[in-house]
Amino acid sequence: MMDFKEATDILTRRITADEIAEAAGVSISSIARARLDPASSAYRTPPENWRPALAQVARERIKMLDALLIDLDVSGRG
C-alpha cells in the first residue's frame, strides 16, 4: 500500500521534454524549438513522428495513473 506522498508524487508528476524527445528519437533542443512560437527565428518544425511519439508518452502516463487508481481503490476498501 502506498502512502499519501508517494500517491501525490505520481499524480502530480509532469511529463518532461526529455521523455518526449526520447519517444520521438530527437534531441531535447528539437522539442524545445518546436514548441516556440512559429514567428520566432529559433522555431523549428516538430519531428515528423510527433503524433505517435506523444501517443506513446500518453499511453505510458495512462498506465501509471491506472496503476495508481487501482492501488488507491484497493487500499481504500480496507
Description:
The protein has 78 residues and is mainly α. It has one domain. Helix content is 65%, strand content 0%. The chain has helices spanning 4-12, 17-24, 28-34, 50-76.
- Rounded to the nearest angstrom, the radius of gyration is 17 Å
How would you state the average pLDDT, rounded? 95
* Count of helix runs: 4
Q: Low-confidence stretches at least 5 residues in length (pLDDT < 50)?
A: none
User: How many beta strands in the DSSP annotation?
Assistant: 0
Tell me roughly what share of residues is in helical segments: 55-70%
Major pleated sheet: none
Return the domain count: 1
Strand content: under 5%
Summarize the helix and strand pattern as letters: HHHH
Output the structural class. mainly alpha
Envelope shape:
elongated
Distance between the termini: 11 Å
Features:
65% helix, 78 residues, 0% strand, 4 helices
List the helices and strands and how they pair.
Elements: H1 4-12, H2 17-24, H3 28-34, H4 50-76
What's this, in brief?
The protein has 78 residues and is mostly helical. It has helices spanning 4-12, 17-24, 28-34, 50-76. Helix 2 (17-24) packs across helix 3 (28-34) and helix 2 packs across helix 4 (50-76).
